[in-house]
Amino acid sequence: MHRTRTPRPGAWIALAFLTLAAAFVLPGSPLRAVENTPGVARAVEKYPEGAQIYREQCASCHDTGAARAPARVILAYMTPDAIVAALTTGPMQAQGSALSRQQKVDVAQHLSGQAFGAAQASAPKPTPCSPEHAQFDRSQVPAFAGAGLDQAATHSVTSSQAGLAKAEVGRLKLKWAFGFPLANRARSQPALGGGAIFVGSHGGTVYALDRETGCVRWSYAAASEVRTAIVLSPWQAGDAQAVPLAFFGDWSGNAYAVEAFTGKLVWKLRADEHPAAVITASPALHGDTLYVPVSSLEEASAANPGYVCCSFRGSILALDPRTGREKWRTWLVDEPKPSKDGKTLGPSGVPVWAGIAVDEKRGNLIVATGDNYTRPATELSDAIVALDLGTGAIRWHFQATEGDAWNVDCVTPDPDNCPEDAGPDYDFGAIPVLAKGKDGRDYVLAGQKSGIAWAVDAATGKLAWHRQVGRGGMAGGIHFGIAADSGRVYVAISDMPDGVERPFPAAPGIHALDVATGKELWTAAPPDKVCEGRPLCIPGNSGAITVTPDFVLAGGDDGFVRIHDAATGEVLWQFDTVQDFAAVNGVPTRGGAMSGGAAPIVEGGQVIVSSGYGFVSKIPGNALLVFEAR
Predict the structure, then answer these.
(1) Do you find a cis peptide bond into 38, omega within 30 degrees of 0?
(2) Is the distance from CB of 88 to CB of 97 less than 8 angstroms?
């Protein structure tokens, strides 16, 4: 349709950057830094033996969405070990029965671009907790409400709950480390309750770990990577009859509820039948309803030659948390229809891959959305949207960027699925935040990949202010990091180089703004030369952050976790996670970049850090690190 189009300026430079960075291997690390740019074919196929097997045995379903098979791009982000497991004992066992063991390995390596049998695979299975550490303490109710830590998603923790004074920060020391097996990224934000840490993993396993020792109380094997936070249902302190649940979603578009004290599955459902659907944004639990946002990787599937793009529709699903029964669903884009020439479908897209805030005062669910994949572009893309908690009816919306229709085919040599006059790909990636300014007004705050921070009136959605904080770009200006406390909103800026010239200078680091006005209060830039001699290192902050009235906890794309003074931005403490750790579970463990939705969190005197982000050419890792002041 558009075969003579030239991709927008800088796209090839960005793609070359990602491809070049993918070639590095971290010295001394058991983890390869492998990047599968979504939908973009590798220049050289590393494992051609599996290509023919895939074409003959798998492509008819996974390339077309037949039989609700997950799209190929989803398989590309699974570890080869997880693919082999799915074909051997998992949901693809019937199809896998026609393949030999070697054929399963070959096709898994072909799809993932990684060697089967990573170093972690041969590590001993973790020893279960001793009776002393295996029991859940029912007096310790869940510390946080969900991914945003409270219903308003402020990512803030009170000083008393943090249990860590500013004067103690400098004495933080590593207590223990846990290594995620079969993983090169750690991006599931932990939940805390019952004396345990609940966390998902790249390998698809969800763990309940003892907070004191890191031993495994239970584990549950999901169908694929669990990128979302784990969300715990509340219980009354000391209630011996309570059966709380843990909720999460996976990379295959499944939502789950398991018993928090046993790991026993209660229910599992496919949140959307679209073959490219994924759940990347964490569910939100409020009252008797679980809200599940749905995203997809069809934006990447568009790069497959001959793919008819695009049919995914972003949505919010409301479920009964005890049964998984659907209460309502709100679609955020109309049903796609064929174009006049039949080569494309539209409108499409508007995924929700960031997260949800709950406005209890007004009875609203607040979501932030991504772009359209095809034209026509719609009014709820790149937008902040308020939905009625009870019915899902849309009450108001604010669109930050009009006409943003884009997909990954726009950066390929033959961009026939790229929309004419493609947009800049300026999704909202950070969970929107509800916060009160020093003027007494309630605001919804949101951060966009454009590098702009937005504030709208919480009651009406009317724009209050906006500020260009970072340069912005395809890989994020503001990606996942925004938090608010004490009248300040803290914004994490990535500004990862992408080869595109923009009028605003790059401004990586942490920025503090006034909630009521958007006025910049301070900036903490990464140290000079921090990335010298460090492969895949990028200065800046892309991941989610946590704040208290006294300090800001932020993990960097350079592999350092830092604690800043909330009033000035001064670095009070920092720790380099790019090193090998002796993990309590015996898995070879190393930290890396900190990006995605897994913020460093603080509670009860412990700082808990997820480290590793082997994705979009950032430093891989597989570490969960727990610190205490000594």
Answers:
(1) no
(2) no
pLDDT tens-digit series, residues 541-564: 999 999 999 999 999 999 999 999
Q: What is the pLDDT of residue 323?
A: 98
Helix (H, G, I), strand (E, B) or coil at 365: strand
Residue 572 parent element (H or E): strand 571-576
| Tokens linked to 311 | 């049919």
Distance between CA atoms of residues 176 and 576, nearest Å: 15
Owner of token pair 């604010």:
398
Percent of the chain scoring above 70 in pLDDT: 89
Contact 283, 294 (CB under 8 A): no
CA distances in angstroms from 151 to 155, 341, 530, listed in the order given:
10, 46, 36
- pTM of the predicted model as reported, rounded to 2 decimal places: 0.88
**CA-based nearest residue to 373, from 425, 332, 416:** 425
Per the listing, tokens 């310790």 go with: 140
* Selection from 563, 462, 431, 624 nearest residue 165 by Cα: 563
Tokens, residue 613: 């982000």
Residue 222 pLDDT exceeds 80:
yes
Taken in order 582, 583, 589, 591, the sign of the CA dihedral is negative
Q: How many CB atoms neighbour CB 420 within 10 A?
A: 9
Whole-number Å distance between alpha carbons of 28 and 345: 48
CA proximity to 158, closest of 434, 484, 549, 436: 549
pLDDT in the model for residue 124: 59
pLDDT at 30 over 60: no
Question: Strand 205-210's sheet: what is its strand order?
Answer: 191-193, 196-199, 205-210, 216-221
Task: Look at domain 11-120 and name its CATH class.
Answer: mainly alpha
Q: What are phi and psi of 326, to 5 degrees?
A: -75, 130
Sequence spans of domains, the chain: 11-120, 121-629
Strands (E), 76-199: 172-179, 191-193, 196-199
Strand order in the sheet with 245-249: 231-232, 245-249, 254-259, 265-270
Using CA atoms in the order 409, 413, 416, 418, what is the torsion angle rounded to 10 degrees?
40
Q: Are 389 and 405 in contact (CB under 8 A)?
A: no
pLDDT of 113: 79
Identify the pLDDT of residue 121: 47
Cβ contact 494:470 at 8 Å: yes
CATH number of the structural domain 121-629 = 2.140.10.10
Spatial strand order in the sheet of 394-399: 356-359, 364-368, 383-388, 394-399
- Our CA dihedral for 44, 46, 47, 52, rounded to 10 degrees, sits at 0
Q: Supply the pLDDT for residue 89.
A: 65
Q: Which residues pair with 34 in a beta bridge?
A: none
Could you read off the pLDDT of 349-403 as tens digits, one per residue? 999 998 899 999 999 999 999 999 999 999 999 999 999 999 999 999 999 999 9
Q: Is the dihedral of CA 337, 341, 342, 345 positive or negative?
A: negative
Asked if pLDDT for residue 22 goes beyond 60, the answer is no
CA distances from 412 to 28, 469, 517 (A): 34, 30, 41
The number of beta carbons lying within 10 Å of the beta carbon of residue 40 is: 19
